[in-house]
């Protein structure tokens, strides 16, 4: 990592505050978020990740600020998805894959011995590239399944499903056909259904791995608007290949190259006056 780069935005106490100050973010024009529910940030220290002998992630330290959207960008194979999967311990599900280092969620290391991995994934939910509703289930059951799979008990299912579909901006479109199959929805609606399934569990953080790459421009816009709304209640970390998308949705952007974090700064700075030459070459399309 470049020692000369500016301090990570959202670092230390800023990541914990309900309304994190945006130190060094004067260049960003975005208004402050009206936080409806304070979510913790994630602090990564010295993360190393391997696939067998392949040392894919090298000494990554980064602060993902609370109630903010952080985008991770970089050329194919630079390690964005691997870092993302390390943030909720999905990486270790891949045979021969392992990770070292600390990932702190509100000061608790999710890699500490004895940590309940199911609880980690409940707190840090994930939305995937391709919408993946359960094919045999209704719209209602798809959302309720998120709760059942995560062992959430004692909630009013109907209430939580409605609240989650509203939160995902889908309620008005599906309220009269909750018993119809989830896969009968359009691609964009399916992705919002998957987001509803994720938020039904009330995680603190939502990880998104290229959530719009299978969607058309209109569906993409809806999901991007949704991401903007969701940060009032969740901390959002998104991997995207699309630099315009990062510029539209992210408060801060992290640029990765060959498994290393090169630069993490307010999005506008990354795209206009990056500190590292490699970032500049990437964002101006000179490689990648
Ligand atoms: N399941 C896997 N098994 C072995 N190696 C993997 C696996 N997934 C990723 N890798 C390797 O880890 C490195 C980082 O890959 P990763 O998928 O995290 O990059 P990425 O930036 O998300 O790429 P892309 O933008 O193409 O999705 C690459 O060298 C890749 O080949």
Description:
This protein has 288 residues and is of the alpha/beta class. The chain has a domain of 168 residues: Rossmann fold (3-Layer(aba) Sandwich). It is built from 11 helices and 10 strands. The strands form 2 sheets. A 6-stranded mixed sheet has the order 6-7-8-3-9-10, sandwiched between helices. A hairpin with a 2-residue loop joins strand 1 and strand 2. Helix 5 packs across helix 7 and helix 7 packs parallel to helix 8. The longest helix is centred in the last third of the chain and has 14 residues. 47% of the residues are buried. The protein binds adenosine-5'-triphosphate. Keywords: ATP-binding, Nucleotide-binding, Translocase, Transport. This is Phosphate ABC transporter ATP-binding protein.
Contiguous runs where pLDDT drops below 50 for at least 5 residues: 1-29
User: How much helicity do the residues have?
Assistant: 25-40%
Based on CA atoms alone, the radius of gyration comes out at: 18 Å
Order of helices and strands: HEEEHEEHEHHHHEHEHEEHH
Classified by CATH, the class of the domain at 42-130 and 206-284 is Alpha Beta
Instruction: Note the main sheet.
Output: 6 strands, mixed
**How big a fraction of the residues is strand?**
15-25%
CATH architecture assignment name of the domain at 42-130 and 206-284: 3-Layer(aba) Sandwich
What structural category characterises the helix and strand content?
A: alpha/beta
**First CA to last CA: what distance?**
19 Å
Summed up, the helix count is 11
Average pLDDT, to the nearest integer?
A: 88
The CATH topology annotation of the domain at 42-130 and 206-284 reads as Rossmann fold
Number of strands: 10
What strand order characterises the main sheet? 6-7-8-3-9-10
Oligomer: single chain
């Amino acid at each position: 990592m470049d020692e000369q780069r500016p301090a990570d935005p959202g670092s230390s106490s800023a990541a914990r505050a309900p309304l994190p100050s945006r130190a060094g973010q004067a260049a960003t024009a975005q208004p402050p978020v009206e936080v409806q529910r304070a979510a913790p940030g994630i602090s990564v220290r010295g993360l190393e990740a391997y696939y067998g002998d392949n040392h894919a992630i090298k000494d990554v330290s980064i602060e993902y600020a609370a109630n903010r959207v952080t985008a991770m960008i970089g050329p194919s194979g630079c390690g964005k998805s691997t870092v993302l999967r390390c943030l909720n311990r999905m990486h270790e599900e891949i045979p021969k894959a392992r990770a070292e280092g600390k990932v702190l969620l509100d000061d608790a290391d999710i890699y500490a011995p004895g940590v309940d991995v199911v609880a980690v994934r409940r707190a840090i939910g994930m939305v995937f590239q391709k919408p993946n509703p359960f094919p045999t289930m209704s719209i209602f059951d798809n959302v309720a399944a998120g709760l059942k799979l995560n062992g959430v008990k004692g909630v009013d299912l109907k209430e939580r499903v409605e609240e989650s579909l509203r939160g995902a901006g889908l309620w008005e479109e599906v309220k009269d056909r909750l018993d119809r199959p989830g896969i009968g929805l359009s691609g964009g609606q399916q992705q919002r259904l998957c987001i509803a399934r994720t938020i039904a569990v009330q995680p603190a953080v939502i990880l998104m791995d290229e959530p719009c790459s299978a969607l058309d421009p209109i569906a993409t816009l809806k999901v991007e608007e949704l991401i903007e709304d969701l940060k009032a209640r969740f901390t959002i970390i998104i991997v995207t290949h699309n630099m315009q998308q990062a510029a539209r949705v992210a408060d801060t952007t992290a640029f990765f190259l060959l498994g290393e974090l090169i630069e993490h700064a307010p999005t506008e700075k990354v795209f206009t006056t990056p500190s590292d030459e490699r970032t500049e070459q990437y964002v101006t399309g000179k490689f990648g």
